[in-house]
């Protein structure tokens, strides 16, 4: 059974702090092993990739078979049932449409001193997308990671996906094709991250690497950060459902379990102002668990990390929401907009009783790569901006420089930076000052 | 003497690769020492801070003296010469004005299916600003790091600055006041980063930490990343000047030295299409070095990491610029806009013969915290966006969900996620499908 907290109880604050500080992940220390693999890929390139793929994926490759060829993708895509392909297309279209609105604007203006100022956005040239193999291989993740890159204008979108024993995942390849992935390699693990970061004889290096992976992949991304950009390293998924007593307990229970089924380290929390409803939801969770396919995972997550928090009224929930800073926040209340207006920290908000979080995982349009582990206090979900960079622009006329330089020279001198001051003063007709 | 490369030479590519791959920094491995300090601050709070400040800064503090009081700031500010204060004010005004234009817009719309979609930007609640003590204590950095936070709407802007032997830097405190810093503590090093990340009895924790520091500070920021957000960890400064033969060699030489004087690990590169001009610049650098105050640092940087690259024409410079991906790019050419339009990777661009990079360090308006070490391929300078986060929004009506859910259910089932599918299907009148 999950923990049940009552905000009016004397020990609430300590218990709530304990809940949100729970360390749910035990990250194995694989840094040394990963470092060795990365160095080996950097030094030996394709040969190292092929060796690790043989060892970890039981797959014998040659350099010319590192890439999954277009004909292989064709064949895999042909296997995807029509209804699934249609669903992928609808999802890809909606995700692309939503992200297209995120494209940032350039800015250029001339200020009162006659100085040209502005900024310009450009896409990164090449992005790498890590896709896990096996059971964690989600076509929806391919869409969510690749489409913002395509919308940003990235030319090379390079996917790596391990294919243990050589088995391809048709739906993943179909998603890659729909999302505009330009190259696909059948490699995984730290060695794939190394290939993307440093390049090999066959694989040209990229500028940015995104996508989820196991502990080795996460460690490898951290180690190559700086050589390339990386997305945030995601923790276990979370959902916070804020619900009044007017909801169907079975609906809310399903929502809580939709995160719990991801991972035994996932966390699902319900906040409600109705104690009887809270008890109904707890019962409904048990009832669903009796029938769901991933009941072992979902049940363990719910028992170990789940929580039901009762509050005297929904106003009291607001500071709790901001402290939790949830990845996903469902507001299943009568006036979700009013509640949302008072909330500050959440990766994504789902409004009202007919917006289960799962609609956002697949099809609504916004990205499902979102900040976990309370990082919604300072971080955002994946977006088009993650695949672009901004260059600022300054252009002075001789006259504009004459206006600004005296102040800049004073500051440079105060900081003891003589060449800075010289680079300004040498351009002035000092007699004219 | 710096290296001189000729793009038409047979061995150019290898020599150019070696130039841009130079490892200029030797980062001491201080991770274990930093880890111990952070854990100590987390466990003992103020007491640990006070102990480390005694040890490293030779300064005896009590909890009530951790903060630099408003009266101390008043007294320090009163010491700042009027011309310097005026220069700081002009700079602060221009930086705030430029950054105000970066404030992002919210978005909200209803799509064809009747689904409400959008995103909302909110500021982080509290930002920490690390300011180095001693000679690297730059008031311009205080403005550049604090003003974007203030423009973003951050409520608590918390500055930490070590004050070895208790000596305050009046100009730094004046900059903090002008920039809207709300709290200042006289602590530094890894212990200050720990205090900002975890909080102590006296210092409330922040959500994001920015600002430059030594190897200990950089390691501490990396270690607390995840608990809080951090800015990028900056490497040594760089400038790339692209200049035709119509420039005054003494001007361009001063620009090259303005980065070289920061640090012996800094890198200054000139690309020109005029070999005689290249030689003139090299001579002018030597002439300036004879008179500049920081000649030892600038001279060592120029000798070890400086480079002059000659190209047959400026078109040939474009791919070199993008491979260097410089932090600062000066285009001292007849038509800088045309050249800029063809360049993709640069942190900041300075247009024309009258725009020395130093004008951007202090007063132009754009941020001087910029991506180094080729990271302009994927990263941007500090901006208002670094102090805000985006929450995405989805709101379905019963009807809207009915439109989207069947596709989402198909994908959830294909991914084997039964509770995801259930959370959708349970809300549908399945008979109506």
Automatic annotation (TrEMBL), chains A, B:
Substrate binds at residues 237, 259, 262, 328, 361, 415, 420. Pathway: Amino-acid biosynthesis; L-histidine biosynthesis; L-histidine from 5-phospho-alpha-D-ribose 1-diphosphate: step 9/9. Binds 1 zinc ion per subunit. Its cofactor is Zn(2+). It comes from the Bacteria. Its EC number is 1.1.1.23. Belongs to the histidinol dehydrogenase family. This is Histidinol dehydrogenase. It comes from Futiania mangrovi.
